[in-house]
Amino acid sequence: MDKTSKFHEKLIVSSAPHIVTDSDTTKLMGTVLLALMPAFIAGVYVFGARVILLSAVCLVSAVGFEWLYNIITHKEQTIGDLSAAVTGLLIAFNVPASLPLWMGVLASFFAIVIVKQLYGGIGKNFVNPAITARIFLFISFAAQMTTWPLPRMAASTDAVTGPTPLNLLAGGEVDKLPSNMEMFLGFIGGSVGEVSALALLIGGLFLIWRKVISPIIPCAFIGTVFVIALLVYGFDFHMAIFHICAGGVMLGAFFMATDYVTTPKLPLGKLIFGIGCGVITMAIRVWGSYPEGVSFSILLMNICTPLINRLSYKQYCGGGMNEK
User: Fold this and answer.
1) In order of start, what are the domains of the chain with their CATH numbers?
2) Which residues lie across from 96 on neighbouring strands?
3) Transmembrane region positions (predicted)?
4) Please, is 142 exposed, middle or buried when counting C-beta atoms within 10 Å of its C-beta (0-12, 13-18, 19+)?
5) 154: Cβ–Cβ under 8 A, 6 or more apart, which residues?
């Protein structure tokens, strides 16, 4: 057997993400699930066992819908790659812990069947399934998606729900804002994916350390939010840190905006993508009618990814890319 034949034996072609690594998709997705565990544990501590139930329902239904779709369409089973499990868990991280379970199932159906499978499955969807499902729920069930349970350690005894820090800021109730340390540790109302910046930071740094994600998008995203907040609030570092810890910036920057399929491939493209996410997020927070803009920013930048890829490829090739 010649050298060419030996090379062809080792050549494996599969759907995106295409990464030069010994790890396969299952190992990558398993690492992401592991990285989400600190935030999951923090969510259970803050909101109780309801987080476990909601997460299990979203995860199982996401995997179930992928399994069922493959059965109906006579496709090879793909549930073993764990991508559906990651999508299901991220959906649970993006909604209130009190969300009705059937809405979590509906979100999983929308993410897996409508956004992912109908476009060809993993590697072919052009927007992040979990982010799109979150926006679908927000538009369809605004009341349930904006009713946030209070932390179990909250001092209030006459209420079980309350506003998030961003809701308080949007309502002008600055005097009621939690401290940055409370938001960093996670003693606030909100979804599982926004209560503890520390837990999400640990998970994100773990992914960077394992080289599962590049630090470019998270740094560009978080850095842009910080700089814009500094400018908007007159170089008030307290408010700049507030905007990093509040809402879904940490979850979005490390776990949603770094999706292999829906984000740019080259370093320049990743930088543009991260900055764009930060700019849109702060534009919505400061001047928009919604208190939070992370989901919308990532979705809009996902749509721009083909253009960003094209521009960054042209820059990388020195303008010599063949125009067709």
Assistant:
1) 25-315 (1.10.3430)
2) 191
3) 28-46, 101-119, 131-150, 184-209, 216-235, 241-261, 268-288, 294-313
4) exposed
5) 162, 189
Per residue in 135-148, pLDDT tens? 999 999 998 998 88
Show the CA angle centred on residue 272, arms to residues 267 and 277, nearest 5°: 125
Token pair of 319, please? 């303008």
Q: Is the pLDDT of residue 245 over 50?
A: yes
Residue 74: CB atoms within 10 Å: 6
Please state, in angstroms and rounded to a whole number, the distance separating the CA atoms of residues 26 and 187.
Answer: 33
Cβ–Cβ under 8 Å, residues 121 and 75: yes
Q: What is the pTM of this model?
A: 0.86
Cα–Cα distance for residue pair 90/82, rounded to 1 Å = 12
